[in-house]
Design brief:
Blueprint lengths: L4 H15 L3 E3 L1 H7 L10 H11 L2 E3 L2 E3 L3 H12 L7 H14 L1 E7 L2 E7 L12 E5 L3 E2 L6 E2 L3 E5 L2 E9 L6 H10 L10 E6 L1
Parallel strand pairs: 1-6, 10-11
Antiparallel strand pairs: 2-3, 4-5, 6-9, 7-8, 9-10
Helix pairs in contact: 3-4
């Protein structure tokens, strides 16, 4: 067997993660779920479906669903995290959205109030959907070429972890990882973890 990163690091990592419950998406499937745009890092269709599934508005003993308009507002809010104040502030805002949710106004039976929509069901992990894909092409900042993390992990369509698979012969893999990540589209602010897998 050739001594390559694919067969000594990346393939075993993919198999392990699938065994742990992640659903595999081919790069083509992942791109389709990203609305066919390499500048979009969210699996939009997955996120939309999960927002419907894990969120309900409770009104006493009754429940209601968030409107389609509010579901789309929640998706857009995540996509439009402002970067004008810097990456740290953008990461902070993203963290708050993912952990605390987003308050949205909705009128139910003539009563208009703010209700919080959650992106991840922290209390019931089984209500979330976990995907992974490989060779996830993302447009680089200010350029026309792409960066391709080896493996990206998603929760409800939101990319939360990047794994770079390296051969044991690669020197200084951490520097290489940070050099690559720094060039990636800044919309990857959802990424909360970066790993290096070496055989």
């Amino acid at each position: 067997m050739p001594f390559t990163e694919d067969n000594i690091s990346q393939l075993p990592a993919l198999k392990l993660l699938c065994h742990l419950g992640y659903q595999y998406l081919s790069p083509a499937e992942a791109l389709t779920m990203r609305e066919g745009r390499e500048s979009n890092v969210i699996l939009t269709d997955v996120l939309r479906e999960r927002l419907h599934h894990i969120n309900q508005i409770k009104l006493g003993r009754k429940t209601a669903q968030f409107s389609e308009a509010n579901i789309e507002r929640a998706i857009q809010k995540l996509k439009d995290v402002p970067l004008s104040e810097g990456l740290v502030q953008a990461c902070n805002q993203t963290y708050n959205l993912l952990v605390f949710g987003l308050a949205l106004e909705q009128s139910i039976d003539g009563d208009k109030k703010s209700h919080t929509i959650q992106y991840i069901d922290w209390e019931n992990p089984e209500n979330n959907i976990f995907h992974l894909t490989e060779e996830f092409s993302v447009m680089r900042t200010g350029r026309k070429d792409t960066y391709r993390p080896d493996i990206v992990l998603f929760v409800n369509g939101i990319p939360l972890a990047v794994i770079e698979c390296k051969s044991p012969t690669i020197k200084e893999p951490i520097k290489q990882l940070f050099r690559n990540i720094s060039a990636i589209n800044k919309k990857m602010v959802f990424n909360t973890s970066m790993f290096i897998a070496k055989s």
